[in-house]
Amino acid sequence: MSWTVHVPILTIAVPLLGAFALPLMAKVHRRLRDLWLVGVGAFTVAMIVTLAVQVFTGGVQVYTLGAEAADATLGPEGFPIRIMLVVDAMSAFMALIAALLGGAALVYALGFVEEGKGKTLSMSLFLLLWAGMLGLKLTGDMFNFFVFFEITTVAACGLIGFRAWESRSPEAAFKTLVMYILGGLLVLLAVGVLYGQYGALNMAFLSSQIQGGALDRIALGLLLGGLLMKAGAVPMHMWAPDAYGEADANTAIVLVANTQAALYGLFRMVFTMYGGASTPAVGWLVTALGALTILVAVLMAVIQTDLGRLIAYGAVSQIGFMLLAAGVGLATLATRPEFGRVALQGGVFHMFNDAACIGLLLLCAGAVRRAAGTGDLRSLGGLAHTEVWTSGFFLLGALALAGIPPLNGFASKLMIYQSSFRLSPILTALAVLASILLLAVFVRAFQGAFLGPRRNLEGGQPISPAMLAGMAVLAVVVIAFGLVPDLVVRHMVAPAADALWTGRDVYLAAVLGG
Asked: What is the pTM (predicted TM-score) of this model?
């Protein structure tokens, strides 16, 4: 048996083992710790890429813990009784996002996180969060979905608030913890409702049984509430600006991936698990929340004076675009699938594009704080005179976020505009106006931080090559995905979106047989 059959579990187990072993390595020597960190990170990225290649070329991958034969997974009643990892094109696509942001964050952290400020603790929690996100995206049963959901809660809140010597980080961590715990409780209640009704936790089996009854709708409502809390959708977004704005830059971009993991969970529930029982009302609800998230987040970004918080509200606004696309797809699933599919493709594509451009902007904000000693736009100015690469990366990310061609954000937003217009022109008008306003906000931020005369600020430090390398990784993706969007859509985005749109039967057959 080839070792490659174990790639799904290795993708989760390696960073999980790395997280717990890292403090032991630090006890031996700091250099050994750093080598271990780099090795675990490189191996994890390699496993994710290998898994994605297997899925995109060979179809759904099912890995059963504790059994080699497929029939060993079935109990006497004909449903799966073992823990399973089920990886389709959507799961693999989301794992690639985690690989991109996790890899860039790791490279950046090597030159950003200071030794005397909790480096070992920070990187251990980073690996734990990485493992939790990957588990959330690859698991095939509801209980382990909840377990990985809670692992990401603990790790994310620890990463945000471990800097107890700063006054605002623990506060941001507490806000995040409250929302994450409430979201987790709702997910757990939903798991309990579904288990009480069907006596099983496997997602494929539940999907084959759900008929849309009262208890099914209650469970769906609980799942939507819990996952939207963790995704940071308005009106449950209040934790996100504090978390993104106060966390270290390398932490903030992993939080972006964690937010998208919650969105993935939402998409998996409504399209795959509830695919046969979803109603247009759910689609309109998600659409309305997406439009509200776009509007509120962009208006809040206008009044921000801290660069990190400004980018954080920009990140929240992009969650709205993804929800808008998913809502249009749900609302038109049965009646007008020809453009609902385009909407879902646009939303899925925008997840990767958002990860790259928001991640780039957050790393730039961290570099600005390192170079100037502050992120307050009222105190910044003239950084482009000395930090040429950082200023270029920031401008690139801002233009991509606003959807300016030929960068990556343009292609995915155009797909969302086109499809949402068919549902309601008002939605498209709102999305376009929000993008224009967001562009104006970031142009103002660029002017305030990088242009004009250089201000002499105390507390600044040089930007390390590792930090620039982390930003360069994301910049390459922003440019490449913008130059060849058709290629990306054809080979990555379309299979991922179709795994949700039309792949439910394939997912069920891979797990249940038939």
From this structure: 0.93
